[in-house]
Amino acid sequence: MKKTTLLLLFILLSATLSTQKSSLHREDTFTQLLVEGKPFLILGGELGNSSAACTQDIERIFPKLQRMGLNTVLVPAYWDLIEPVEGQYDFTLTDKAIEQARANNLKIIFLWFGAWKNSMSCYTPLWFKTNYNKYPRAITQNGKPLEIASAFSDNVRQADNRAFTEWMKHIADVDKTHGTVIMIQIENEIGMLESARDYSQAANQAFQAPVPEKLMNYLQKNKKKLHPQMLKKWEAQGCPRQGNWQAVFGSDIYTDEIFMAWHYANYVEELAQTARSIYNVPLYVNAAMNSRGRQPGEYPSAGPLAHLIDIWHCGAPSIDILAPDLYDNGFKDWVAQYHLHNNPLFIPEIRLADDDGVRAFYVFGEHDAIGFSPFSIEDGSDSQQAPLVQSYGKLKEMMPLLTQYQGKGVMKGLLFDQENKERILHNDDLVITCRHYFTLPWDPRATDGSKWPEGGGIILKLSSKEYIVAGSGIVVEFAKSTEKASGNAKELLGEDGFKLKGENEQHSYTESKKFQGKRCGLGSVDEIQINPDGSFGYIRRLNGDQTHQGRHVRISVGDFKILHVKLYEYE
User: Is the per-residue pLDDT at 550 higher than 80?
Assistant: First the structure.
C-alpha cells in the first residue's frame, strides 16, 4: 500500500512538472526565461487596452503580429467581460486569443485586468461597481471615495481572486499540453492616486497597527542588500525593530507609500499563490513610473516601483519580476533601475516608436533582458523595412547566441542619440570606440536639421580577436591601448572621408612622439546570418568603402545587420 501511494505521488508530480512549459532559471549573474526547456527572449508587443475585446479584432490583429516578427503577444483579460454576471464565466476571448496565437506561431502573456488597471477599478464588473457597500472604495485624505477598490476589503479580494481562480483553471485546462501561455501579469499598474494611501477606516486602523513582524524580520535579515532609498528611510529613524509605520519609517507621504505597498503586495500574493497552485508559469507585476518629479499620489503610489522592491519582495514572494512601463525620457536610466541583483529586466510596455528597434538591442546586450514589448503594437507597421520588424528579425536570429552568452560579461549594449553620441569600451588591451552613425561626415541626414533617430546595438566578444557587432546606426573602431597611449588626436574628416585641409599641421605634435607597441587591424568583416543551431551563415564580405578602407565597422541608420569581425595585430 505504501509503495502504491508513493508511486501515485511520483506520477502526479511528474505530470505536474511535464505540464509546466515555461519557467525562470536563475543564476548568480542573470535570469533566463525557459520555454519548453530552452532559453527564450520575448520579442513582444502588448495590445491596446480594448484590442482583445472582440473575437473579430483578435482574428484581424494576430496574423499582422506574426508578419511583424513577434514571438509573443501580451493580451489583456478583462474581468468585466469574463464575469459579467456574478458567478457566471465567459472565456470566449481567452480561447480566441490562445487559438489565434497557436495559428500564428505566437506565445501569449495574459494580463489580468482585475481589481485594478492603471490604479483604477474600471475593469471590475458592473455588479461589483454598483455594490460599493460590499466592495468598498479607497478614500482620500479629505474623505472622497475613489474609483479604486480598497485593498483592505476582504470582499474585494475574495471576488477578484474567485474570478481569477476560475480563469486560471480554464487556462490550465486548455493549455497544459501546449504551453502557449508563458507568463501571467497580475493586475495592471497598481497604485493609489490623489492620496499616497487609502484613508478608509480599515486602512487607518492598519496604519496605526505595528509593522508586521514578517516585514521587520526581512529588513533586518537583508539590511546590507536593501534598496538604498529603503535603507535610508529606515536608518533615518534609527533602524527600529518594532513600532507602527510612522515609528519605523517616519511621518511623511513616503511612509504612506511604503504602508500602501505592503498591503497591495499582500493582496497580489494571494492571487499569485492561486496561480502557482493551478498553472505554475512565471508571474510579474508592472509599474507606472514615478517620473517628472511627481510625489506619491501624483504618480500611482505604492506600485511595484524600484525603490519599493524590498516591500514587494517580502509581501509578494511568489511574484518573479517587477517590470517597468516606460513612456518618459531617460530610457537608459529607467532600465538600469529595474535590472537589479534580485530582479531581472522585462519591459512589458514602452511607447511604440521607431527607436524601439535599437532599444530592444540595447536591453538584451546591456542588461541580459528577458523581453521587450512596445505598447499598442497593433498600430505598428508590418512593412519589412520598419525598424521594429527588422530589429526583431535579427534578434530572433541571434537568440541562440545571446542566450548562450547571457550573464558571462562579454556583451555590451549600445544606444546613441544626438546628445549622447559615443561610448568607449575596454576589453583586455583593446579600446573599442563606439559612436552614432551620424558622427561620420558623409551622410547628409546628419546635418539636415532633423532630429537624429537613435542608433544602437550589441557588441559580443567571442574571443580576444573575434567579435559580433549587430544593430543599426552605429560605427565601431578597434584599437590597441598602445595606440591610444601614443596620443593620436581625433581627426576631423570631410565628406569624402579624408582629413580636412590643415589637420596635419594642426596635429603634427602627435607625430613627434615615437610610436611604440602593436596596432590592431580589421582582418575581415562579414555580414552574416545566424542559423537556429547558433552557427554562422556567410552573406557577404564588407571591405573597402564599407569599412572606410579598414578603419572601422559600421551599420547605417535604417539598416539592421549582424557583422562578424575578426581582428589581427601588426607592428
Answer: yes
